[in-house]
Structure formats: C-alpha cells, structure tokens
Amino acid sequence: MSSLRLPWPLPALASWGLCWLLFTGLLRAGFGAATALATATALGVGFSLLGGSWWRRLLIGLGFPLSLLIAGGLALPAWAWLLPLALLALIYPLNAWRDAPLFPTPADALNELPTVAPLAPGANVLDAGCGLGHGLLALRQAYPLAELHGLEWSRPLVWLCARRCPWAQVRRGDIWQADWSGYDLVYLFQRPESMPRAIAKASAELKPGAYLVSLEFEAVGLTPLAKLEGVPGKAVWVYQTNHVQSTNPPRL
Ligand SMILES: C[S@@+](CC[C@H](N)C(=O)[O-])C[C@H]1O[C@@H](n2cnc3c(N)ncnc32)[C@H](O)[C@@H]1O
C-alpha cells in the first residue's frame, strides 16, 4: 500500500484524530469503553498500513491507545489495554516479521518480467507472502493469462487481499511450509536474510525451467538470468532452474 500523500507527521495526526472522533462518538452512542477502544484502535491499525516505514506504522497504529492511556480518566480492566497489541499482532504476525514486514511491490515493477521469463497461458504463479495483493496486481499486469496464487500468514491480510484480488487464489499459509513444486514462477519480496532459505527451498522443490523472482534482494551465490531495473531502487532478480550457474552450491 502506498504511503499517505500528506507530509509526515500529518498522516499520524490525522489518523489519531479520526480514532479519537470514532472513540468519543461510540461512547456517546452508548457503546462500552472496551468496545470503543477496540474499534478505534482497529481503525488506527488499519491506517498504519499506509505508513511508509516501521516507525511510522507503529506510531500511527499505537498513537491512539497510547494517547488515551496518557490522557487517563478511562476506567478499563487491565486486559483491555492488551487489545491494541493483539490487533497489531493480528495484522503484523510475529512469524511474518522474521521474513518480511508488509511492504508493497510498486505497480509497474514487474512489467518487463515476461521478456526474460516468458510463461505459457495458464502457468501457475505464486506470490509467496502476498500481503495486501500489490505483488499479485503487478504479476497480473505482467502475466494476464497466468493462474495467480497468493500465500500469506496474516489472517486479516489474507482476507483483504482476497477481496482486492478476487481473480487470484489467495490462502493463508506459511511460505516455507508450502510446496513450491507446482508453480512455474515463485515471486518473493521478503528480506535479505530470507534469501538463503528461499534458494534452498527453490533448489529442492522448483521444477526444471521454473523461475524464482525476487524483488530487491539478490539470491547471493546464484547467477541471475536477468536483473531488471524498471523501477529505480527496486531491482527484480530473475533466476531459472535450468539456467542458473553457481560456482558453489546451492544451485537452483
Ligand atoms: C514485503 S511484504 C510483500 C507483500 C506482497 N508480496 C507485495 O509484494 O506487495 C511481505 C509479506 O510476506 C508476509 N510473510 C512474511 N513471512 C511469511 C511467511 N513465513 N508465510 C507467509 N507470509 C509471510 C508478510 O506478512 C508480508 O505481508
């Protein structure tokens, strides 16, 4: 999801203000304090997806409950203060943090991919860790005739992604537990630290001729089929099982 167009810190201030409006509105409407806290916090956590960096997301997501806590004067059981953290954990599950937090693929980042990684109509393409579906949208733009699949660990993101990309098969799962052997192309936008694991998994599971594509992060040790730089600062590393040359294992 792209960051808010407003200059920082206006997005955070706007988000907190809207959370407070919702919170006070719900209290006035007769809802309980815990319900109002949970609903307004959920709104803030939703807005946090628009933040362009981790710190901004945390500030947007936690700003409202923290300001409420500091303001005091609200009689809530202690457990109610765990709600904001639980909501954040739902949308950014810790397991997924190890691999990659939610950052989106730019819309045009994969446009040149078919020139170096052509796929037959109906080919199976996986966005491993599909987040809100930006990678799937970019893949669809590149391969309109492919069967697109998305795998994501965070339940709310799976739900949202499936709604944004109804033409894709989106399901919840761990990209490292999933079987990659049925895919003609596996697309990743994870972290540098995840790449050795991705190399090992792709080497073990991808069928001959299949592609491993990584946005931004190189599979160090493998020779890429191509490195595309259609979007500045967002290199697309393309590897193919029967084209990869590596001086040392691992190989695809
Ligand atoms: C950088 S985002 C990329 C989102 C999407 N692929 C895109 O390019 O727009 C990485 C995503 O991978 C998800 N993720 C991280 N580790 C995962 C895992 N082990 N299994 C499933 N999803 C994971 C995160 O929750 C996050 O949504």
Quick overview of this protein structure:
The chain is α/β, with parallel strands linked by helices. It is built from nine helices and seven strands, in the order H-H-H-H-H-H-E-H-E-H-E-E-H-E-E-E.
Provide a descriptive summary of the structure in words:
Helix 1 (10-28) packs antiparallel against helix 2 and helix 2 (33-48) runs parallel beside helix 4. A hairpin with a 7-residue loop joins strand 6 and strand 7 (236-240). This protein starts with 9 loop residues before the first helix and ends in a 12-residue tail after the last strand. By secondary structure, it is an alpha/beta fold. A seven-stranded mixed beta sheet has the order 3-2-1-4-5-7-6, with helices on one face. The model is unreliable at 244-250 (pLDDT under 50). It is built from nine helices and seven strands, in the order H-H-H-H-H-H-E-H-E-H-E-E-H-E-E-E.
How do the helices and strands follow one another from N- to C-terminus? HHHHHHEHEHEEHEEE
Terminal residue distance: 31 Å
* Main β-sheet description: 7 strands, mixed
| Approximate strand percentage | 5-15%
Enumerate the distinct ligands: S-adenosylmethionine
Low-confidence blocks of residues: 244-250
The number of strands is 7
Rounded to an integer in angstroms, the radius of gyration calculated over CA atoms is: 21 Å
Helix content: 40-55%
The pLDDT mean sits at 85
